[in-house]
Amino acid sequence: MQTVAHILRSKPDQTVYRIAPTAPLLDALKMLADKSLGALLVMQGEQIAGILSERDYTRKVELLGRSARDTLVKDIMTATVICIGPEHSNEQCMALMTEHRLRHLPVIEDGKLIGLISIGDLVKDIISEQQFTIQQLEHYIYGIRA
User: Fold this and answer.
1) What angle do CA 138, 95, 84 make, to 5 degrees?
2) Residue 18: beta bridge partners?
């Protein structure tokens, strides 16, 4: 069972993309598209003010007939953000994501943002663990030394 700290270290790009709550939504959408992201952390200085996801945009702008040009990030972001620590396991994160229908979890250590993990990061890690277990079992069954 891997920890979030391990998952963060294994990510090729550990950049946490962020945007200010007063930024125009159109700027956020451009960043999401340019960086191929599903969500951005909304930061007020060093504090998390919220999270903005593609889901927020589709449900709170597009379906309501609003304009991305005339809407600020703070008007549609999700203000309640569930965070985790680097000591959490991948299973604990999956349980949180499933229970709260989340796709992203900010990682906080000593009150400071240190990373962001996605459901994709967790799935990749779980698959890697399973492949390792399968390899070990095959070595055991067939008597192959690692």
Assistant:
1) 105
2) 41
Instruction: Name, in order, each residue with C-beta under 8 angstroms of 119's C-beta and a sequence gap of 6 or more.
Output: 94, 97, 102, 103, 104
Query: What φ, ψ does residue 84 adopt, rounded to 5°?
Result: -130, 170
The Cβ of residue 59 has, within 10 Å, a number of other Cβ atoms equal to: 12
Indicate the pTM of the whole model.
0.83
Give the whole-angstrom CA distance, residue 47 versus residue 27: 20
* Proportion of the chain in helix, strand, coil states, percent, rounded to 5: 45, 25, 30
Q: What's the pLDDT tens digit per position in 65-88?
A: 888 899 999 999 999 999 999 999
Q: Which domains are delineated in the chain?
A: 4-142 (3.10.580.10)
Largest Cα separation within the chain, whole Å, is 66
